UniProtKB/TrEMBL annotation:
CDD domains: ASKHA_NBD_MreB-like. Forms membrane-associated dynamic filaments that are essential for cell shape determination. Acts by regulating cell wall synthesis and cell elongation, and thus cell shape. A feedback loop between cell geometry and MreB localization may maintain elongated cell shape by targeting cell wall growth to regions of negative cell wall curvature. Keywords: ATP-binding, Cell shape, Cytoplasm, Nucleotide-binding. It comes from Conchiformibius steedae. HAMAP family: MreB. PANTHER family: CELL SHAPE-DETERMINING PROTEIN MREB. This is Cell shape-determining protein MreB. GO terms for biological process: cell morphogenesis; regulation of cell shape. Forms polymers. GO terms for cellular component: cytoplasm.
Length: 347
C-alpha cells in the first residue's frame, strides 16, 4: 500500500545529464526542463570553506566569465561525466525541485544517461549523485541506446541501426540491434571542443580573446563542417591581447570551417572506426538504412553532408536532435518492465 501511495504521488524522471545542458523528462508530460549544466557559487565570507549556491542553470550561465573574485560559475560535468560530485548533486537537487514546482514529491525512479565510454567509477558517481538528489531507484542507460530510442529507431529488431550522438562533451557512436549496443565508441569531442577550437583560432590568427559564449554564437551563426558552402561572415567583439582593449573584427564561415577541422576529423574517424568493427550482417543493414545524427552537433551546417561523403552512407538528422537522448530515456522510463535488457547493470 505504501509503495502504491509513493508511486502515485511521485514524478518518475528521465535525465540527460549533459556537459553543456541538462534535460529532464517527466512521465506523461514530456521534457519539462532544459537548462545549462552550470552552477554559480559564492565562497562563505565566514571562511568555513563551504560554498553557497547562488544560481543553477540559465541564471548561472549568465554569470560565466562575468563574476567577481568571490563568485565562481562552475560546469560540474566534463566530457559527459562528473568532474565535481558535490556540485553535481546540488545542481540535480535544484533541477528536480524546479520540476516539482517546489513541492515535496518523492522521486522513486530515475533513468539517467551515461556515455558508452564512461568507466565503472564514473558511472557509480552518476548513480550516487542521483540517489543524493532524492532518487530511490536509479537506472543507467548508455547514450547511444537512448539516442536511438529518441530517434524512433527499431532497437528491438534483429536489424542493425547506427546512431551518432554529438553532445557537448562527447560524441557517441553506436551500432544497435536486438535491444543491445553491439559496438560503440565514445570520443571526448563535442560542441564544447568546437567552441574551444574557435577561441584558439581567433587568438592565434587575430590576436583577440573571446569568451566561450561568443565562440558558441559564432558556431551557431556561421559554423559549418562541409567545404564549398556559401561564405558568410560575422562581426565579433573581443579583447585585443596586444592593446588590452575591446576591438571588433570580421570572421568568415571559411575561417570557422578551418578552425573546426581537427575536432570534426576526430568525429569522422570515430564513425569510420565503428563501421570497420561492425559485424558484416549488421553492416549490410546500415549500408541500406544509413546512420542517424542526434545531439546539438547535428545542427552544425553541412555535418550530415560531410559524413555522407566520408562514409558513403545515407545520413539523416533526427527530428529535434537536441532532445533526442532525453526523449529516448523517457521511452525507456515508460517501458522499464519491457525494456529491462537495455539498462546497464549496477556498477
Amino acid at each position: 500500500m505504501l509503495s502504491f501511495f509513493t508511486r502515485f504521488f511521485s514524478n518518475d524522471l528521465a535525465i540527460d545529464l549533459g556537459t553543456a545542458n541538462t534535460l529532464i523528462y517527466v512521465n506523461g508530460k514530456g521534457i519539462v526542463l532544459d537548462e545549462p549544466s552550470v552552477v554559480s557559487m559564492q565562497r562563505d565570507p565566514m571562511g568555513s570553506g563551504k560554498n553557497i549556491t547562488l544560481a543553477v542553470g540559465a541564471e548561472a550561465k549568465k554569470m560565466l566569465g562575468r563574476t567577481p573574485g568571490t563568485i565562481e560559475a562552475v560546469r560540474p560535468m566534463k566530457d559527459g561525466v562528473i568532474a565535481d560530485l558535490n556540485v553535481t548533486e546540488r545542481m540535480l537537487k535544484e533541477f528536480i525541485r524546479k520540476v516539482n514546482n517546489n513541492r515535496f514529491i518523492s522521486t522513486p525512479r530515475v533513468v539517467i544517461c551515461v556515455p558508452c565510454g564512461s568507466t565503472q567509477v564514473e558511472r557509480r558517481a552518476i548513480r550516487d549523485s542521483a540517489y543524493s538528489a532524492g532518487a530511490s531507484d536509479v537506472f543507467l542507460i548508455e547514450e547511444p541506446m537512448a539516442a536511438a530510442l529518441g530517434a524512433g529507431l527499431p532497437v528491438a529488431s534483429p536489424t542493425g541501426s547506427m546512431v551518432v550522438d554529438i553532445g557537448g562533451g562527447t560524441t557517441e557512436v553506436g551500432i544497435i540491434s536486438l535491444s543491445g549496443v553491439v559496438h560503440s565508441q565514445s570520443v571526448r569531442v563535442g560542441g564544447d571542443a568546437f567552441d574551444e577550437a574557435i577561441v584558439h583560432y581567433v587568438r592565434r590568427n587575430y590576436g583577440m580573446m573571446i569568451g566561450e559564449s561568443t565562440a558558441e554564437e559564432i558556431k551557431k551563426q556561421i559554423g559549418s563542417a562541409f567545404p564549398g558552402m556559401e561564405v558568410t561572415e560575422m562581426e565579433v567583439k573581443g579583447r585585443n591581447l596586444a592593446e588590452g582593449v575591446p576591438r571588433s573584427f570580421i570572421i568568415t564561415s571559411n575561417e570557422v570551417l578551418e578552425a573546426l577541422a581537427d575536432p570534426i576529423s576526430q568525429i569522422v574517424q570515430a564513425v569510420r572506426s565503428t563501421l570497420e568493427k561492425t559485424p558484416p550482417e549488421l553492416g549490410a543493414d546500415i549500408a541500406e538504412r544509413g546512420l542517424v545524427l542526434t545531439g546539438g552537433g547535428a545542427l552544425l551546417k553541412g555535418f550530415d553532408r560531410l559524413l555522407a561523403e566520408e562514409t558513403g552512407l545515407p545520413v539523416t538528422i533526427a527530428e529535434d536532435p537536441l532532445t533526442c537522448v532525453a526523449r529516448g530515456a523517457g521511452v525507456a522510463l515508460n517501458e522499464i518492465g519491457k525494456l529491462n535488457s537495455i539498462f546497464i547493470m549496477n556498477p
